[in-house]
Amino acid sequence: MEPQHVDAIAQLPEAESCRDSFPETFPNPIDVPAARYTDAGFFSLEVESVFRDSWLFVAHEGQLPEPGDYLALEGLERMGHPIFLVRGRDARIRAFYNACRHRGGPLIDRPAGSTGRHLICKYHGWTYDLKGELVGYPEAKNFPDGMKQKCPPLAQVECDSWGGLVFVKLTQGGPTLRAYLEPIATEVDSLIGDGSTGAHFAEQRSIDIPCNWKLAGDGNIETYHVPFVHRNSAAGFLDEKRTGQWLLPNGHSRMLIRFRDDVPLPSTPVFEGDTRLAELGVYSFHIFPNLSLVFGGASACFLISAWPEGPDRSLYMTHFLSPVERTDSTTNMIDASVEGNWNVLLEDLDALGPAQKSMECGVTDVLRLQYQERRIRYVHEQIDRCIGSERVPEALRVPALLDSYVEEK
After folding, report:
1. pLDDT digits over 232-248, tens only?
2. Same domain for 266 and 395
3. Domain shared by 49 and 70, yes or no
4. Which residues does the chain have with pLDDT short of 70?
5. HSE of 20 in the Cβ direction (CA atoms, 13 Å)?
6. CA-to-CA distance for 325 and 341, rounded, in angstroms?
7. Which of 80, 177, 317, 326 could lock onto 160 through a cystine, CB 3.0 to 4.6 A?
């Protein structure tokens, strides 16, 4: 990154801490109807038009290190798309529906494992190579000649990686993964992207939560809650009054919350690459629709994805990365980092179930958002763009008020 761009990002949190009034020209109000978190029809529109057409982060390549390794994608399965990843003998990771072309039987029946050289249907034994092509099937005499040549390969969805991060897309066409991730991909490429050399998969954890997927993500894109929810943890080293936020193209956004100047930080290994901004505090991004990419300083990185299962149910999944590989000498340090960050994230989740119930019973009818919660509003505006505002019930619409505040980088 150019030094002037780094300086501009670093200085905005300081300027925000000096601001003593609401920005005069900023839209007011930027409220959001609470029914967007409870309405079953609107939920269906999101799954159909937002999640089907977006690049979705699903795994780290380190979870499939060897040819034949596979991984079921639980988040997508909750949405009705039973898809798994498998690493081919050419080292490429592909994404297939877990459905044999014979009668839809499953090709994998465990969350993760190794399938060896072939994918074999658990129902009738049809066999496919790791590229999804049919190799053979029992009792071939009972099928007409040429069946193997006529049978289509396994149903495949778009799958691509940025650095070690694996994304899938349910529909064909649209921007490439790299184009979709910009300008974030360029900004942190040297840390965890295609230009990185020292980002290692550490662990993946998940938990079911009784709330809408958006509510699960909202806490990751504002710091208003930090002194209250994290008063005995993160608030001790984060200065929420020094928070800078940026709205970026494609529904993405950035946030930097500065460390407190008077709190010494532990000396631990850091990610290779350009750590100038990560060293200053919690440096994070929202990647539309459901991913938060968070650097907890220059020594920790985790990716939080909230997966919709119903209007009031979601899967909260976190992938932790480490700047060092897991070895006998580093395991304790990595485990301590994962555990510490996971416990802070769990604090965020405690209030979500009650908040969801308050929306469902109608006592919370609107989210009254303030300036430092504008990233939440921006997500909703992008959702309506994806669906098409004319398809959103009038009482639930969120008109685009923030377009003029979007920055190209």
Report:
1. 999 999 999 999 999 99
2. yes
3. no
4. none
5. 0
6. 18
7. 177
